[in-house]
């Protein structure tokens, strides 16, 4: 020890290595080859063939979506008997989210005046004026109470009189108008994507035959899988809805565009896959989708009138996902190296097995020595026995 410390510089030029021992043990030898075989199968079958470990993957897709709906529906409203996309698509500039009206309740020609509150509004019924506190807003109602309890138009019930947009909206079953042609409306979806890591971009619009192809095609998984024009009825049925049911109450649908691009192949093989899913719940409280909007006008006397619309329909939400992959030498080296380190695990297990077997042999040898020692002890005189045993 003293000598070692006296010359520490000598250790600077020392190199420590492992001494390998070749054993003739067939079981351990076979086991080691078996480990190597499994690891090679894992490297080739799983890492390279299945998971394409020689490629780098980019799943940060940048995308833009433009939508346009076309089709005409016959309706019966105060201002028109035909509705086009300008009327039934909200908002009218197409984007990732759009709403297509399929059913609506029109309350035409409302003016700001007094009228009885709708009996369908909770807490609106009354028996005498004391139930209608003047100046109080009706909770979830249509106006401010005037302090009078009065008979509703065409109804036997009494409700508080309000100041608001009158007459109030009629219940749905009396006034709803369906857009029967909505099933045949067409939805055009233009999608542009970019994988920044590879600086490569794609669009779902095929260059060949454009624009005449788009004008005439209709998306069909077998005959026109890359046509970007979809029939609304097909979208709804593929999302698992029955058109008539959801057109009446409204619903949300997700249009999923999935890109899976292998840029080691021909980039023209990189095409979108479309799928559709319902995004609503089927419980009565949460099912359906509707909202209200109003269109305002003024009469000759300068009085403001409005038409109120409660609209039901399909809320379409276009979602884009994608991954792109390309060969990368760094990724290949990392994956090969990390799998090859597993070989060390195989060696370690074989070492442990070998040690365990050797230990067993050694234990047998030790028990023989112990037996010899006991025989020798028995032959010794007593005073030597004590010394020896100590
Ligand atoms: N909902 C749709 N259904 C069927 N074809 C559509 C639809 N929306 C657009 N198209 C067609 O797709 C092509 C590309 O539409 P884009 O909006 O880019 O061009 P456009 O000439 O402005 O279209 P538009 O015909 O509305 O004037 C056009 O030929 C258009 O007619």
From TrEMBL:
Residues reported in the UniProt entry to bind ATP: 68-70, 186, 290-292, 310
Membrane topology of this protein: Multi-pass membrane protein
Cellular compartments annotated: Endomembrane system; Membrane
Keywords from the named record: ATP-binding, Disulfide bond, Ion channel, Ion transport, Ligand-gated ion channel, Membrane, Nucleotide-binding, Receptor, Transmembrane, Transmembrane helix, Transport
Top-rank taxon, per record: Eukaryota
Recorded GO CC terms: endomembrane system; plasma membrane; postsynapse
A single BP term in Gene Ontology: calcium ion transmembrane transport
Glycosylation sites: 184
Gene Ontology terms, MF aspect: ATP binding; extracellularly ATP-gated monoatomic cation channel activity; purinergic nucleotide receptor activity
Family from the record: Belongs to the P2X receptor family.
Matching NCBIfam families: P2X
Role description: Receptor for ATP that acts as a ligand-gated ion channel.
Designated name of the protein: P2X purinoceptor
Gene: p2rx8
């Amino acid at each position: 020890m003293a000598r070692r410390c006296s010359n520490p510089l000598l250790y600077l030029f020392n190199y420590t290595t492992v001494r390998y021992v070749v054993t003739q043990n067939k079981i351990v030898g076979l086991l080691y080859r078996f480990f190597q075989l499994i690891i090679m199968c894992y490297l080739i079958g799983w890492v390279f063939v299945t998971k394409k470990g020689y490629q780098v993957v980019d799943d940060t897709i940048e995308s833009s979506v433009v939508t346009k709906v076309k089709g005409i529906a016959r309706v019966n409203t105060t201002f028109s008997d035909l509705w086009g996309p300008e009327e039934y698509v909200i908002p009218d500039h197409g984007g990732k989210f759009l709403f297509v009206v399929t059913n609506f309740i029109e309350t035409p020609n409302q003016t700001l005046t007094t009228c009885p509150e709708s009996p369908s509004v909770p807490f609106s019924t009354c028996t005498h004026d004391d139930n209608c506190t003047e100046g109080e807003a009706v909770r979830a109602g249509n106006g401010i109470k005037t302090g009078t309890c009065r008979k509703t138009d065409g109804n036997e019930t009494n409700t508080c009189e309000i100041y608001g947009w009158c007459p109030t909206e009629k219940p749905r079953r009396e006034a709803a108008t369906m857009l029967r042609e909505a099933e045949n409306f067409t939805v055009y979806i233009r999608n542009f994507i970019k994988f920044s890591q590879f600086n490569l971009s794609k669009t779902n619009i095929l260059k060949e035959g454009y624009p005449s192809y788009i004008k005439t095609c209709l998306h069909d998984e077998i005959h026109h899988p890359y046509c970007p024009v979809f029939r609304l009825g097909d979208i709804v049925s593929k999302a698992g809805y029955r058109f008539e049911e959801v057109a009446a109450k409204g619903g949300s649908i997700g249009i999923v565009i999935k890109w899976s691009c292998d840029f080691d192949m021909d980039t023209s093989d990189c095409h979108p896959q479309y799928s559709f899913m319902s995004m609503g719940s089927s419980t009565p409280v949460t099912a359906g989708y509707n909202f209200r909007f109003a269109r305002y006008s003024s009469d000759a006397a300068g009085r403001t009138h409005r038409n109120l619309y409660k609209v039901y329909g399909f809320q379409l939400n276009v979602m884009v996902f994608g991954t792109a992959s390309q060969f990368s030498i760094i990724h290949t080296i990392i994956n090969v190296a990390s799998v090859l380190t597993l070989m060390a695990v195989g060696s370690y297990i074989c070492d442990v097995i070998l040690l365990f077997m050797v230990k067993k042999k050694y234990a047998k040898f030790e028990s023989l020595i112990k037996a010899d020692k006991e025989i020798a002890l028995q032959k010794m005189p007593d005073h030597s026995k004590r010394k020896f045993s100590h």
